[in-house]
Amino acid sequence: MRSRSEAIDTGSISAPREILTATADGSDGLRTDAQLLADARRDAAAFAELYGRHVDRIYRYCFARLHARESAEDATATTFFRALSGLSSYRGGSVIAWLVVIARNATTDALRARRRELSIEAAAAVEDTALTPEDRAVANAESAALRAALARLSKDQRTAIDLQLAGWSLAESAQAMERSVAAIKMLRARAVAHLQQRLEHFTEKDGCST
Predict the structure, then answer these.
(1) Per-residue pLDDT at 151
(2) SS3 letters for 154-188?
(3) Which residues of 128-166 are buried (b: 16+ CB within 10 A; e: fewer)?
(4) What is the H or E stretch that residue 106 is in?
(5) What is the reported pTM?
(6) What is the DSSP string of 58-69?
(7) First to last CA, the chain
């Protein structure tokens, strides 16, 4: 499994090097994201350029949410397939923000499918004799507490944290969420404070019950 900060291997991408490093606003003389998306309706090569420009960041975002290389690769492929299939759903604005929304939906679908699979596997699994019942209870409670804390974050707070874990800079996150850098800083700070408060509450509650 690759680390959260490790980027997907772009060696297999056939797009030229200048496309992979192009900016989204056209300041480098190349087409903007919006221009590429418009041209992609009639020119497949335009979408290939857009893919090459953003696949690395979308992969890192998916990996931060799924924590598994194969799942992140599948979600990344799903994201760009849905984008290509749904070009007409783009209504203007930041293209990377549009892609992040698609990626969030793709990873949410993957997480739901994973939970269903885990439930089936858990029902048929043999008890792990390496862990005592007490150890299993503690591990399950801690995992449940973290999931509950994350679930209580607002959608924007969760997205800001996921992008941060994926290694996106403040500027990149601001562009993806169509917010100011100051707003992203605030979202991150509030999300972290909320998580700390919820987990401290869990620790204190657990300590009182022992």
Answers:
(1) 80
(2) CHHHHHHHHHHHCCCCHHHHHHHHCCCHHHHHHHH
(3) eeeeeeeeeeeeeeeeebeeebbeebeebbbbbbbbbbb
(4) helix 95-124
(5) 0.67
(6) HHHHHHHHH--H
(7) 36
Can you read off the two tokens belonging to residue 69? 């290389």
Q: What is the pLDDT of residue 26?
A: 56
DSSP code, position 177: H
Mean pLDDT, contiguous 10-residue spans, the chain (210 residues): 37 35 56 94 94 96 93 96 94 94 95 71 46 49 69 89 90 94 94 82 56
Query: What CA–CA distances, in Å, run from 149 to 52, 113, 155, 164?
Result: 35, 21, 13, 17
Tokens describing residue 179 = 């917010």
Cβ atoms of residues 79 and 98 within 8 Å: no
Structure tokens at 127: 């008890």
The phi-psi region of residue 2 (left if phi > 0; otherwise alpha if psi is between -120 and 50; otherwise beta) is beta
Cα distance between residue 10 and residue 56, in whole Å: 8
Give me 184's structure tokens: 């992203």
- For residue 10, the model assigns a pLDDT of 32
The first and second tokens of residue 51, run together, are: 């893919």
Q: Which amino acid is at 162?
A: D
Encoded tokens for 84: 């290509």
pLDDT for the residue numbered 114: 82
Q: What is the pLDDT of residue 149?
A: 78
**Which two structure tokens, joined as six digits, stand for 159?**
């997205």
